[in-house]
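Our preliminary data section would be incomplete without showing what the modeling component actually yields. Below, a chain of 465 amino acids is followed by its predicted structure, encoded as tokens that our downstream tools consume directly.
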Amino acid sequence: FQSNMARRIFPCWDEPGLKAIFNISVKYFNKFRAFSNMPTTLGGHCDSRACWTYFNDTPLMSPSNVFIALLEDNVRLKIIKVETDFFWHTSQIEILKDAIGAIVLVNSYLMSFTNLSILLPRRDHIFFPDNRINSMGCFGLMIYSEMGVLYHENFDFPGRMVYTRKVISHQMARHPFTAVVTQSRWADLWIGESLSELYSHYIIDKIYSGSQLMDLYAIEILQSTFQYETICQMRALSKYNVRVADEIDVVLCSRWYYNKGFALLRMIEYMMTRDKFQLAVKKYLDEFKFRSATPYDFWIILQRILNNTDNQEFRIKEIMDTWLDQRYYPVMHVFYDPKNNTVRLNITGSDDMRKPIWIIPITYILYHSAGYHLTSDTWITSSEIAMTKIAPNIDFVLFNVEQNGYFRVNYDEESWNRIEIFLHSNNYNKINVLNRAQLIDDAYYFMMQGCVSPFRFWKIVSYLK
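Predicted structure:
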């Protein structure tokens, strides 16, 4: 049950931070079968019209995570058991084999990434033969639209297999981040959904190792979120409350809030390294298992990990507050002076009417005729104008390495010209593919804003031919 829907089924304070042990029993017409988060107990009974089904007590959980499903119980409903996972379906098993195998594979990677062992005596997966529903799930019970997860190698194109695994991995990744650990307030819902999105990409990247799918997802999410953040006139992430948002906003824009959260978590992950970030997530899940947590609780654990390393200058909460409490994103303007061998940075907001302040990760690569040099990372406040001295043999400086920062970059005319020449050389692949995608997207955006000429954009994008 999302938002305030739980109170329509049973009396409760349906806030995600309030937890209880639920003893669930369901009475229903006997042509159905009942499912919930926990396995059934002995003692259920039916008469000529109705049945009672009783379920085991749940762990401590939020009302919004209670799941009750009624399915028509006819001769077509079949069951397959794989360890503690039960798969219910009406279609022929041959066309579901790939989806079932994917669920087992995703689950193994998810347990490896999160250090969470099996927390329930069983988990039910229901394949629903109706493409009008979306795949959904919660603690102990998952429902999939067959149209969303079916793949047949003799009929479907290979990208379809990747898509089905993405659907499955996202739904299963929501289990630890939105059910095992729940958010304390509706306004904090983004942290669980964004971590689920990030970890579903980890899993896909692991399944298709070496395929660069993580790069593809990063480009799709980052560039789309830049666009929709202004189209939807999104609020600051910390101020978005799905419970009080209007229905149109929830349907059309909620995913972009979670995608922005994904982008911010990816930014922090890059600056502290993936190994340290994943260690912090494991500690977060272990410390708050079957409890409620806030984003601040997660920042504390990240900070604890950083304080044990050489990166003690990071102040996670201070950094993230500047990104969560403000709308939109910053724009970095780069001015390169080759005569004095200096680079000047000026950072503004994408909304010119305001003067917001962000703490921004500064990463850059120095390109020259002999190759390139990756510099160390630092952070600056957007209210500052930064000046950097560089070596005299540098051709140009490329900022926002692998597009890990959630901001756009505009260069002066001479820098754009040098980047364009490099892209049209045989060394174009020395620029990371994520940065090449960023250059094209940013050049197009600034062309539409009147800051870059259409001729310049065409020269940038034409290297692709």
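The mean pLDDT is 85. Residues 120 and 140 are 7 Å apart (CA to CA). Preliminary results of this kind motivate Aim 1 of the renewal.
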